[in-house]
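Protein Record: Sequence and Backbone Structure Tokens
======================================================

Structure line: whole-number tokens from a learned vocabulary of local backbone shapes, matched to residues.

Purpose: to set a sequence beside its fold so the mapping can be learned.

___
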Amino acid sequence: MSAPAWEIGEKLEERTLPPIDRVQLIKYAGASGDYNPIHLTDDAATEAGLPGVIAHGMLTGATMGLLFSPHLEYGYVKTFRSRFSGMVFLGDTLRVGGRATEVEEAADGVLHVFDVYARRGEDTVASGEVGFLVYGD
């Protein structure tokens, strides 16, 4: 595999992730320190007026970063902005994808900017912008 050379308008291969499960939420709570009970227990979620446990927003956002994991030997995620527009529940399956919107030369390589999304069915639950810097020679 060679270093990526994305062009403006090029789409990233969409990925379908495994369904969200309670173990994933517990592990994320431990890693992030976010033990808000609406992410962990049914009773707390329903007491808060939710139909059930919801995934951490930042976990949903992080799923969009998985698009770049295969390319980390060639660069790194330099910038990452996200917006949340929907809730993710236990059992939901997310699809993540994106499209290149900018390419610019930088002192340390080439910066590729992408619009990215996380979707549950046809609903976008998170979107954002990722800048991935491909190392220069």
